[in-house]
Specification:
The chain is an alpha/beta fold and 273 residues long. Helices cover 26% and strands 29% of the residues.
Amino acid sequence: MIHTLFEYIKKPTMYALSSSEFWNDSYISKNMLRTHLDPNIDAASRNFKFIDQSVKWLNSIAPVETHPNVLDLGCGPGLYADRLNSLGYQVTGIDFSKRSIEYAKKTNKNNEYIYMNYLEIEYENQFDLIMIIYCDFAVLKPTDRKKLLKKIYKALKPGGKFIFDVFTSVYYKDKYEQTSWAYIEKNGFFNKEPHLCLEAHHIYENNVRLNQYLIIDENGHIDNYLIWDTFFTKETILQEIRNLGFNSIEFYSNVCGYKFREDSETMCLVLNK
């Protein structure tokens, strides 16, 4: 156990994988769904007031009359998809959490919800609007981002839009490399039983960040969860989307359509095919 712990507390190599299931762990996924459905916090999903504003903006720049077919990648329990469907859109939602997809299927029979890794999508000229919302795009490693962008472009109809957001350096300006630990007696996010949580924030080249959580239970079992992210500038995100074939690119501060500001914590892009 000590040897394993010593290995885990070394700074992980870039884009190393977690040692244990995260998205479909029976206990963690229950807590994730509960967090998604909390209307007042920005965690697994943004707060419901923000989502309502975001859907209103999406409807204004991609009206249902011209963009009726939507692909929501990383749809979670369908918070955006359900609202869009109520406006007349037909939405296909894809997520890698079985629990979230099962919830979405139960709450909206009109949309199509699919449990799968969205890196495996294979569509062609099928959607008018594709979106990845709440900075999910940046958790992927560069080769996967490139792969996904090509698949998204292929899946869009001519005239379609791809909308996504990422964090900027402003979001991370006060986040330094650091470690901490806490003893959780019961009902923690990662484990129901008593456990020790060792948490670290690591910084890598090319604006890559890692939140690491080591969960050690009373029996000495260790789970190592690695949550990756990348923040972008206008220049670095343009490097990723150049030469894909999109006709135009629009920048906003967030997915509510606020005018782009350099001091915004997020950056939203609208790519037009």
